[in-house]
Amino acid sequence: MSESTLFPAVACVQFTIAIGAVERNIDEAERLIDEFAPAPDTLLVLPEMWATGFDYDRTTELGRRTPEILEAMQRIAARHRAVLAGTLTDLPADGGLPTNTLFVVGPQGVLGRLAKQHLFTHWHEDDYYRGGAASSLIRTPNGPLAGLVCYDLRFPEVARQQIFAGGRLLAVSAQWPASRLDHWQTLVRARAIENQVYVAAANGCGLTGAMAMAGHSMIVAPDGTVVRAAGVEATVIGCPLDDALVDEQRRRFYPAGDRSWGTADRDKIRTLEELHPVLALIRRAGCQNSRIAFTNGCFDILHAGHVSYLEAARRTADCLVVGLNTDDSVRGLKGPCRPVNSEADRARVLAALGCVDFVVPFAEPTPLRLITALSPDVLVKGADYREEEIVGAAEVKAAGGRVVRIPFEHDRSTTELIDRIRSAS
User: Which H or E run includes 324?
Assistant: First the structure.
């Protein structure tokens, strides 16, 4: 028997979320689902933060209730032999900021989860949550499930990655405001059309706190046809899904599978004079909302510790600039036998990393001139440095920026690697 690739049916649960009122929200969702009486194996998509709303001052308190909310989702799923998907606060074990996580729950418990990647800074979500890593498909007994959380809908590459990996159904869990209803309707259809995928987009409705939500949950077919659409009232909309329709659309052409490599990594390597106007354009295009991070190093023999560090540095902002010591600068710091790899080679390897946006060489012993010229929003350095030891920290903070110290995940050292190579030979 072949593996399932698509849920037989999908539904969107739409209602007004009462901020902080967990029991009330669970009762309302359960009432609507019971009245709808879904067929077995239906996927039921709930709005974003459906059980709690965004109650920022009580984020941690309400996050501690996530396990009991997941139990309620499992109970409802078991009663209807269905699967539920909706976002909740996911508290990390390390005590850091939580993620806004889409949980997919079946009769046996949690089937998978994915965290919201793009936080809505306009509503200060980034002050209370952290963004998630790139989302992989959630494997379910009814096939792979792709997912987006609200603001992620505006980033087509997030859905495209999941569809290329095998997704045929995209669940969107949102609290989208009424003031941007036309954007909601357009973007939901766009994600379906460009990926030739079913999209089930569940939204809140009515007043959530002082904010009017748009409602208008939608189920859209792979050709962009709106199969079901809600209005502004609490309701459940649902329909069967046709796996053959997905195949029919994709046989003719399949944009998600046409993945030519068009990135010119060498273009990331810039001089300070070249980079300055480029960053000015990036900032101006984003009305100063696009944040620039800066870090620096020799990066002589790139290893796993470097890569993990640079990925973490990139997560602190929207663009990462890496200052790279020139060959003469490295010799002054490390001795006459270094670097092992030339400046051009080191820059080329760094530029090939997806987390690095620009590489700019500098010849001075420290990157202070670069930092003051570029004025990054975030200055990143390893946690082995105290803040007062970090070159440029005072200047960045005086300009309104911040300093982030990142611990190394891997115990790796270029010097140790070189010693091992020498001893082996």
Answer: strand 319-325
Rounded to whole angstroms, the Cα distance separating 92 from 235 reads 33
H, E, C per residue of 156-190: HHHHHHHHHCCCCEEEEEECCEHHHHHHHHHHHHH
Q: Which of 410, 202, 424 is nearest to 308 (CA)?
A: 410
Domains of the chain (ranges, CATH numbers): 9-257 (3.60.110.10), 265-424 (3.40.50.620)
Tell me the CA distances in angstroms from 188 to 115, 154, 339, 340, 373, one per residue in order: 19, 9, 51, 51, 42
pLDDT tens-place string over residues 79-107: 999 999 999 999 998 889 999 999 999 99
Quote the distance between the C-alpha of residue 375 and its chain's center: 26
Q: What strand order describes the sheet that includes 138-140?
A: 138-140, 143-149, 169-174, 198-203, 218-220, 226-229
pTM: 0.87
Q: Which amino acid is at 77?
A: A
- What does the pLDDT read at residue 388? 93
Q: Which of 301, 345, 310 is nearest to 326 (CA)?
A: 345
Using alpha carbons, select from 214, 154, 152 the residue that is nearest to residue 187: 154
The CA distance from 342 to 298, in Å, is 10
Whether the CB-CB separation of 69 and 111 falls below 8 Å is answered with no
Radius of gyration of the chain (CA): 24
